[in-house]
Design goal:
With 271 residues, the chain is α/β, with parallel strands linked by helices. 32% of the residues lie in helices and 24% in strands. The strands form two sheets. It has a seven-stranded mixed sheet, sandwiched between helices. Strands 3-2-5-6 form a four-stranded antiparallel sheet, covered by helices on one side. A hairpin with a 3-residue loop joins strand 2 and strand 3. Helix 4 crosses helix 5 and helix 7 crosses helix 8. The relative contact order is 0.18. Keywords: ATP-binding, Nucleotide-binding, Transport. It comes from Ancylobacter mangrovi. Belongs to the ABC transporter superfamily.
């Protein structure tokens, strides 16, 4: 994996179309299985549908297959069994419709923020002036208007993650996969970036699958929370989040929110 692998982008590969189905379902799995070395079951018969424009959190203990599921959707690894489709097509490799962001920003130290944001474009072709303007606009969107020409060493950890988020958006992908992108940050910075992420996702009208170990974060961000069991990873339950948007941090102090946190925690504790 190269130095800017925080964002996964690749050219489309041929994918056979899945027959029928609801056009509003953008990710669909039926009995999805992934094993490693023929014996370690990382994901066991997961079945779910994710609707266009929704924000879905995936929560569960370490090693339960959350990151494996994201990599399957991204086409970075192949399924062992079951069915998986994205935008109505079976997944057989990476697609430009899907982009993925990992926990670490992995910015190139010798490139400015805007140059780092441009990397996904430059992987595919030469960047144009329009591409550079878009990259600067995206840095503005994530709150880095005054830092477009700063180097990573001049930015805080939270600011570096904002650059990585802008780089994710630069791909133009409709489906965004985020694998614990704020897990290494302090609680205050993480809270601010959660608010930024919700605002940005609404602005770009993307579909998001977001992995976290933090139950409160999972609920605060999502329309639905997919709760995973310990390995072999199974989908224990999909919990609907009833809170209206926009949401503020005060929501997390309400009895309703904490009641839902308790419900998800009890599901996790029951497995």
């Amino acid at each position: 994996m190269n130095a800017f692998s925080n964002t996964i982008v690749a050219a489309d590969r041929a994918r056979p179309a899945m027959a029928g189905g609801d056009p509003d379902i953008v990710i669909s799995a039926d009995g999805l299985v992934k094993t490693f070395n023929g014996e370690v079951i990382a994901l066991d018969r997961a079945t779910f549908d994710i609707r266009r424009g929704s924000f879905v959190s995936l929560v569960g203990p370490s090693g339960c297959g959350k990151s494996t599921l994201l990599r399957l959707v991204a086409g970075l690894i192949a399924k062992t069994g079951g069915e998986l489709s994205v935008l109505g097509h079976g997944v057989s490799g990476p697609s430009s419709d899907v982009a993925m962001m990992f926990q670490r920003p992995t910015l190139l130290d010798w490139r400015t923020a805007v140059e780092n944001v441009l990397l996904p474009t430059e992987v595919k072709r030469s960047a144009t002036n329009a591409d550079r303007r878009r990259a600067i606009d995206l840095l503005n969107l994530v709150g880095l208007k005054d830092f477009a020409f700063s180097f990573p060493r001049q930015l805080s950890g939270g600011m570096q993650q904002r650059v990585a988020l802008a780089r994710l958006l630069q791909t133009g992908a409709n489906i965004l996969l985020l694998d614990e992108p704020f897990g290494a940050l302090d609680e205050f910075t993480r809270e601010r970036l959660n608010l930024e992420l919700m605002r940005i996702v609404e602005d770009v009208d993307a579909t998001v699958l977001f992995v976290t170990h933090n139950i409160a974060e999972a609920i605060f961000l999502a329309d639905q929370v997919m709760v995973m069991t310990p390995r072999p990873g199974r989908l224990a339950r999909i919990v609907d989040v009833p809170f209206e948007r926009p949401r503020g941090v005060e929501l997390m102090q309400t009895p309703e929110f904490n009641g839902l946190v308790g419900e998800v925690r009890s599901i996790l504790g029951g497995h």
